[in-house]
Design a protein that fits this description.
By secondary structure, this protein is of the alpha/beta class. Helix content is 45%, strand content 14%. The chain is built from 10 helices and 6 strands; from the N terminus they run βαβαααβααβαβααβα. The chain has helices at residues 22-32, 43-48, 51-58, 70-84, 99-102, 112-135, 163-185, 208-218, 226-237, 262-269; strands at residues 10-14, 36-40, 88-93, 139-149, 188-194, 248-251. Strands 2-1-3-4-5-6 form a 6-stranded parallel β-sheet, sandwiched between helices. The longest helix has 24 residues, at 112-135. The chain starts with 9 loop residues before the first strand and ends with a helix.
């Protein structure tokens, strides 16, 4: 059921790869709530994924962009504003990639060249997206920008590896750029720290299934699904959250503030 939360709003969705993607689910929800969209991803992801299927479903153009390339980002924003006939109201940054995780390098033995690339794609790309929008005056007043994060930015999850560092930087950029963009143009910038979610990228983390089960037992409400996260992102793009900015918002069924649950105690006592 649509409530037209985003009627008349225009947004760019970064990172939709396939139907498991939170970005994919968010695009569907935003469209259902009345938004006009542009979809974007890196050229390699466009070849690997199924984004054209999503584009048809949400009646959106697909504009490829390497998120670490400033020229690509400028082209993306130029073409998006041409398509919309004006400025943009919201952006979803749903991007993360760890070469050290992908190649099985332990955190204590990481390849630093790979690490730099991982940080550039997973965190600094958020600064580059915001910087491009800032330089081009591409966002409307009271616009909303959301990046997807994870609680490994605050707590240690051994197999999350260098992505924990990347998420910490991502959240710092959220606060710092959020301050400047708020002062300049009332644009709000937030990150959402989501439950472990069975996406194509998330499932690649070592021990993912076991940890997902643990998180389910540690969360009073259970794990938040990708669909739940899409709903939350949509709310953050709406006018109902106009005064929320520079926050890392935990969307994890209560996991982030739970010390232990009875279910976990009982599991340990078996």
């Amino acid at each position: 059921m649509s409530n037209n939360l985003l009627k008349g709003k225009k947004g760019i969705i970064f990172g939709a790869l396939d139907e498991k993607s939170i970005a994919w689910k968010t695009a569907l929800k935003c469209f259902d709530e009345g938004a006009q969209l542009v979809l974007t991803n890196a050229p390699v992801a466009l070849r690997m994924g199924e984004i054209n299927k999503l584009a048809t479903a949400v009646n959106a153009p697909v504009i490829g962009a390497d998120v670490v390339n400033m020229d690509d980002l400028k082209n993306l924003f130029e073409k998006s504003m041409e398509h919309f006939g004006g400025k943009i109201d919201f952006i979803l940054h749903s991007i993360g990639m760890s070469l050290n995780v992908r190649k099985g390098k332990h955190y204590t033995e990481m390849n630093y060249e790979w690490n730099q690339k991982s940080m550039d794609i997973s965190a600094l790309s958020f600064h580059k997206v915001l910087r491009t929008a800032w330089d081009m005056d591409a966002l409307n007043e009271w616009g909303s920008v959301v990046a997807l994060s994870y609680i490994a930015a605050q707590r240690v999850f051994p197999d999350y590896n260098e992505m924990a560092d990347a998420k910490s930087l991502l959240e710092s950029i959220t606060r710092s750029f959020g301050y400047h963009y708020g002062v300049k143009n009332k644009v709000r910038v937030n990150s959402i720290s989501q439950s472990p979610t069975r996406t194509t990228a998330g499932s690649g983390v070592k021990g993912f299934d076991g940890f997902m089960n643990y998180a389910e037992k540690m969360s009073p409400l259970g794990n938040a699904s990708g669909e739940d996260c899409a709903n939350y992102c949509t709310l953050m793009f709406s006018d109902y959250t106009r005064m929320v900015t520079m926050q890392n918002l935990f969307h994890d069924g209560g996991f982030s503030f739970t010390g232990v649950t009875q279910a976990v105690i009982e599991q340990m006592e078996k």
